[in-house]
Design goal:
The complex is a heterodimer of chains A (658) and B (237). By secondary structure, chain A is an alpha/beta fold. Chain A contains 26 helices and nine strands. In chain A, the strands form two sheets. A six-stranded mixed β-sheet of chain A has the order 2-3-1-4-5-7, with helices on both faces. The termini of chain A are far apart. Chain B has 237 residues and is of the alpha+beta class. In chain B, the strands form two sheets. In chain B, strands 3-8-4-5-6-7 form a six-stranded antiparallel β-sheet. A two-stranded antiparallel ribbon of chain B has the order 1-2. The longest helix of chain B has 24 residues. Classes of the chains: A alpha/beta (658), B alpha+beta (237). The interface between A and B is large, with 41 and 43 residues. Strand 9 of chain A pairs antiparallel with strand 7 of chain B, so a sheet runs across the interface.
Chain lengths: 658, 237
């Protein structure tokens, strides 16, 4: 609770009176991986990343819903297990709920693991906030032989409970109706049914009385519990005799400790869980499940030998598939444009065709041939529930660099795009782990960079070289991790992660997710590449290019042994990594790239591209996540590393490849 | 009890960690004592109910012996930690020093050492796990906040506890004690691992990899070190 050092003035349900005048806010909150983002997407029509693993949503997302002519703000909060926060994204949720006071909290719970989910619901109830509980995954629960009585749950919790199957959009509008109803008719005190053990409850009441003395409003139960637990930061500032109350609360807590023989935090957790368990048992009827698909699947996916084999195979199949698909698509597009190529006469025509048109189709090749398939496959994997299994498998290997398995999820996501992956590093619960994971994430070849490996080295030298280079990069990431692990020794205890059931991804969701990310490549990437290509071709036609390339020549030509024009590509690549391959195509002017680069130069160029600098969007995220100092160090470090390894590769590989 | 009995029990405790029984020659080598004397001592220990001894097959600790061996190992490793961390004695020397001191270490000092060192879980020289104490606490926080200094007032555990790492696959148990405390304990509680909760180990990754357990209808992955600090009472069947 160390981070809630804000003094709060509790208003209880009083804030709802004026809510008709202003725009309503509904906030989605609940455990990780219960379907909050799916409901958010259904309500707002936006595409917030979803997936079957804990910690996708690491930031507050907002959207608007138009419901019967009413504009309602919908807020999607990161998953949270408890108000005793552990990781950064949980703190975000806690602060939002405590300080922003949304009109209604939509508490999403997973019907397949009700007991654990209700633990958080109980905390919301203690706070006396207006809550609507959404019972999601009822269909999955039934498949597992679990039937949840929503009516009884509603009665026991004393708040509206709506059944939903979020992926199909079932129940989402009912939940909004229930929320609006709650705003219109704020319920009276109805906390009565939720009682903990007698001796605990009694002391909570005593604390409430202590805190409420002289205040006109009721003090929420949650606040009294905070006080018993020794967290005084959430109390109103206008309490005069705070030290008296503190002493008395300590005394009450001491009595409980003496009685239970456990410390107060554990007593409270145990009480909440006992109540959650008793509610869950009352409302759930379950038949013993048959051998589940998840268990069967896990006997391979988590197997100490076959599991790694499957992981390796999955990665390889993805790379090889994208490589062949990209090549096929590239030939198709290039063939078409070559067949309609006009005779080029004069500089204007040259700039139009070799700059504009080739720039355009080269950009399309990279975007559709390489990046889109990556996004589709990664989105599918994310929805399936395979990522937490990778985290489980990689936990042991990650320990050699002082991280734990959780960090492998951002690293896998980074194969698509580094930007969301850097943000996903928030699931790491301490600063040191987060920093190292973020740094390593920026070194993972994203789809744009992989397009160069596959489209250049793979297409013109051979797929073995392409796969070799990628594995070299993974090795480099590991070595950098080892070095960072030595510089900053680990203090973290290790992984505590939920392993969800597998879910068969819905293709519509997969497509929407991939398309949402990919759209940026079409609307920003492609035009930018066309512009860049036209500018470069213009400079080329009028022989201006060498002025620019000369500046970088000492590094690019003398040290790395690359053609001078690559200097421009390297600069342009900072904006968009996929531009590197596209612009190469346009430099070659429709001819094979082999005419402007030797195989050795292709390899060295690709190595440099893989390492040299995070793209501008990634840098922006890095600044936000890690600060100026760390970002500067990372960027400088990667530039140095790229120049160093590129130069060495040029000299060493030159012995074999010239 | 004399210190040579303690030495024997400690040696047998360490030799039987992997679940095998300890042979006369193992113990003889370890303590640098002739096999004949070892056999003699085995008989004596068996009579007193510390070990079960079957000739040619070696010895295993009884429950009583196990608890005692654990206690000795705990005192030894706590002392090593203290010598190394607080007194800055070299890693190569702590073992011998601790051997000399462990027999005179009272339970009261043992507890004080553990509190001062902030509940260490491994010893400094070879990274072995420090066994948990036998006081009836469910968290270290509780031990820290215990007001009375009178050691005799503290309840002892009635049933032996083992760490999650010592459970076999599909082994069921109830959570008894979580060592360490702070954020990690809080998190475990929030995920449902409160004292008394029934859990079942569903997967054990080799080479100090993570564990998968099922608790309150969900599956959790726990890192090796975290699992080593969660102590449980085994359930039969």
């Amino acid at each position: 609770m160390k981070n809630s050092a804000k003094s709060l003035t509790w208003k209880g349900a009083a804030s709802e009176g004026d809510s008709d005048a202003k725009k309503l806010t509904l906030a989605l909150a609940g455990n990780v991986n219960v379907g909050k983002s799916t409901i958010f997407n259904q309500l707002t029509g936006l595409v917030q990343e979803t997936g079957n693993w804990g910690g996708k949503t690491v930031d507050i997302k907002r959207g608007t819903l138009s419901h019967h002519g009413l504009q309602i703000d919908i807020v999607d909060l990161p998953g949270i297990y408890s108000f005793a926060t552990y990781s950064t994204e949980e703190q975000i949720t806690q602060e939002y709920i405590l300080t922003q006071r949304p009109d209604v909290i939509i508490n999403v719970v997973d019907a397949t693991s009700l007991e654990r989910n209700l633990f958080f619901t109980l905390q919301l109830r203690e706070m006396g906030l207006p809550v609507v509980t959404v019972l999601n995954y009822g269909d999955e629960a039934r498949k597992k032989g679990i039937h949840v009585d929503a009516k009884l749950l509603q009665e026991l919790l004393g708040i509206p409970v709506i059944e939903a199957i979020a992926v199909k959009g079932i129940g989402v509008h009912e939940l909004v109706d229930a929320a609006l109803d709650l705003v219109k008719n704020p319920p009276q005190q109805n906390n009565g049914k939720l009682e903990y053990g007698k001796e605990v409850e009694q002391r909570i009441s005593q604390t409430i009385a202590l805190l409420g003395e002289g205040l006109s409003e009721d003090v929420p139960k949650w606040q009294a519990i905070q006080f018993l637990e020794g967290n005084y930061s959430s109390i109103t500032a206008d309490n005069k005799n705070l030290s008296d109350i503190t002493a008395k609360a300590q005394e009450l807590a001491g009595e409980l400790v003496a009685m239970h023989g456990e410390d107060i935090t554990t007593i409270i957790s145990a009480e909440r869980f006992a109540l959650a368990a008793s509610i869950a048992t009352k409302v759930t009827a379950s038949k013993p499940p048959a051998k589940k698909f998840s268990d069967l699947m896990d006997s391979i996916a988590l197997h100490p030998i076959f599991g790694y084999f499957m992981f390796f195979l999955t990665l390889s199949v993805i790379l090889i598939f994208v490589s062949f698909f990209g090549e096929w698509f590239s030939d198709l597009v290039e063939g078409f444009f070559e067949s309609i190529k006009p005779v080029i006469t004069g500089p204007a025509m040259d700039i139009f065709w070799n700059g504009g048109v080739i720039g355009f189709y080269a950009a399309l090749i990279v975007a559709i041939g390489f990046i889109l398939p990556f996004f589709l496959i990664l989105s599918w994997l994310g929805e399936s529930g395979y990522l937490p299994r990778i985290a489980f498998l990689m936990d042991r290997p990650c320990h050699t660099i002082g991280l734990h398995g959780m960090s492998s999820i951002p690293l896998i996501m980074a194969l698509g795009c580094n930007v969301p992956a850097c943000m996903a590093c928030r699931v790491m619960n301490n600063k040191r782990d987060r920093l190292i994971a973020t740094f390593l994430t920026t070194m993972v070849p994203c789809a744009a960079r992989t397009s160069i490996v596959l489209g250049l080295v793979g297409a013109f030298i051979g797929w073995q070289w392409a796969v070799g280079l990628l594995f070299f990069q993974f090795l480099l990431i590991y070595v950098v991790g080892l070095i960072l692990g030595r510089i900053m020794p680990s203090t973290a205890p290790g992984i505590i992660m939920e392993i969800p059931e597998y879910r068969w991804p819905r293709l519509k969701n997969v497509w929407r997710q991939a398309w949402f990310r990919f759209r940026e490549f079409l609307v920003i990437g492609v035009p930018l590449i066309v512009i860049g290509s036209v500018v470069i071709e213009t400079m080329n036609v009028y022989n201006w290019l060498e002025y620019l390339t000369n500046i970088l020549a000492p590094v690019t030509v003398s040290w790395l042994g690359l053609p001078a024009f690559t200097g421009v590509l390297l600069i342009f690549g900072i904006l968009r990594k996929e531009a590197n391959l596209a612009l190469l195509f346009s430099f070659a002017g429709g001819a094979a790239i082999t005419s402007i680069m030797s195989p050795l130069q292709m390899v060295v160029f690709t190595i440099v591209i893989l390492i040299y600098i995070p793209c501008i969007s990634t840098i922006a995220v890095l600044l936000k996540e890690t600060g100026v100092k760390a970002t500067t160090l990372m960027v400088l470090g990667e530039i140095t590393l790229a120049i160093l390894i590129g130069g060495v590769a040029y000299r060493v590989l030159g012995l074999f490849m010239s | 009890m004399n210190s040579s009995v303690e030495e024997y029990l400690k040696a047998i405790y360490n030799l039987t960690r992997s679940g095998k029984s300890a042979s006369t020659s193992d113990v003889s080598k370890r303590l640098n004592i002739s096999p004949a004397s070892v056999t003699e001592m085995f008989k004596k220990l068996a009579e007193e109910g510390y070990i079960s001894y079957s000739p040619y097959r070696g010895v295993t600790l009884t429950e009583k012996g196990e608890a005692f061996g654990k206690k000795m190992a705990r005192k030894h490793r706590l002392l090593e930690r203290f010598l190394h961390d607080t007194l800055k004695i070299g890693k190569d020397k702590v073992h011998e020093e601790a051997c000399a001191m462990e027999h005179t270490l009272s339970d009261e000092v043992e507890r004080a050492l553990c509190l001062t060192l902030k509940y260490p879980d491994t010893c400094p020289d070879d990274g072995k796990t420090i066994p948990p104490c036998d006081f009836d606490f469910s968290t270290c926080q509780e031990c820290k906040e215990w007001d009375s200094t009178d050691i005799d007032e503290l309840r002892r555990r009635k049933k032996g506890v083992v760490s999650l790492l010592e459970l076999k696959n599909h082994g069921r148990a109830t959570v008894a004690f979580v060592r360490g405390g702070g954020e990690m304990l809080r998190r475990l509680c929030d995920m449902g691992l409160t004292p008394g909760t029934e859990i079942c180990v569903t997967r054990i990754a080799p080479l100090k990899g993570p564990l998968e357990i099922s608790v309150r209808g969900t599956k959790l992955a726990l890192g090796h070190r975290i699992a080593g600090n969660i102590f449980v009472e085994k359930l039969d069947g």
